[in-house]
Amino acid sequence: MCQYKTLTNLANFIPNGRLGQLFTKAKSYNRINIELNKILPNTLKPFIKLCLIKDNTATLITNNHAIYFRAQKQIVKLLEILIQIPALESITHIEIKINVN
């Protein structure tokens, strides 16, 4: 007779320790990116994502060089957009990086 293991709903899975902290952070970044996607200009919307918040700096990432340069030219506007999101109210600086992978 086969015994099946109970499946875990990964949407509610929260491991303990450092891994649990990473899961929690990833979920919050996903929520922020959903909110951000609603208010970003259409020229940046599908191409740029929040990938890190450290101190008062938000790091955005794109895999497109043209989007990187377009975002760099709109850095003040991007900061104004970011601070509209309650979780990002304390952001004072933005870094934009290109993911080449």
Description of the molecule:
This protein has one domain (16-98): GMP Synthetase, Chain A, domain 3 (2-Layer Sandwich), CATH 3.30.300.180. 40% of the residues lie in helices and 18% in strands. It has helices at residues 17-39, 65-73, 75-82; strands at 49-54, 57-62, 93-98. It has a three-stranded mixed β-sheet.
Chain-wise SSE layout:
Blueprint: H1 17-39, E1 49-54, E2 57-62, H2 65-73, H3 75-82, E3 93-98
Parallel strand pairs: 2-3
Antiparallel strand pairs: 1-2
Short description:
The chain is an alpha+beta fold and 101 residues long. It has 3 helices and 3 strands.
Give the mean pLDDT. 88
| Residue share in helix | 25-40%
> Remind me, CATH topology?
GMP Synthetase, Chain A, domain 3
Low-pLDDT regions: none
Strand content: 15-25%
| H/E element order | HEEHHE
User: What is the name of the CATH architecture?
Assistant: 2-Layer Sandwich
Total discrete domains: 1
Number of helices: 3
